[in-house]
Amino acid sequence: MAKIMIAQQFCGPPNSGNGGYVCGVLARDIEGATTSVLRARVPLDAALDLAVADGAAVMTDAEGTLIGRGEAARLDMDVPPPPTLEAARQAMARYIAHEQRVHPICFTCGPERAEGDGLRVFAGQVEGAAAGHVACVWTPHEAFADADGLTPSEIVWAALDCPGFFAWVAKEGRHGALLGTMTGEVVRRPKAGETCIVSAWPLVRDGRKESAGVALFTAEGELLARGHQVWIVMGPPSQPAAARPDAVSA
Q: What does pTM read for this prediction?
């Protein structure tokens, strides 16, 4: 068992850890695709326990409360081709949080975070694509690189977090959801300074659950990482939607 701490820098909401980052921390010692499930608010700047055994990681707080769990999974999902680099760059201008105060200090998507402090992933609607297909350009900062100049996997997971949320915002114009589950796979970690394309698209809504697909590509369209997310909507439940074949099984 290891002692870890999620620093304030890696917040999503001001008082809780960034969902994608924490899911990535749960996944980083598990080989291949991983399903990470968040069970409680992730305390910041507090001692946490992380136990990894038999292909699973369990995070608990000082009182033994379960914060999250990650375990090996199988990721079965279709990933649509990314937009061009120029189309992704243009989509950034449509990022809704440029005009609305959504999550201003979020590690992933907060516009008030400086380069090298936050990731500044600003995904907006892709022109000519289906409603909710969002994208942006993202260049991993050297401040997050490891000794080999590569971006750690938990940072890649964090970069894929909020675009899935904004896919549903772009589709329906409604805010208010928390990441509950993310199944992800990092195919290749990007180098610091490597220009990438982030893409996300809405999948299925079922009651308070909204699922989204997310992916990271090189500027030339090589797949670097992909993920399936389940978001929990804060508010009254919606009517179930017909399921799509983009399924994830653990």
A: 0.92
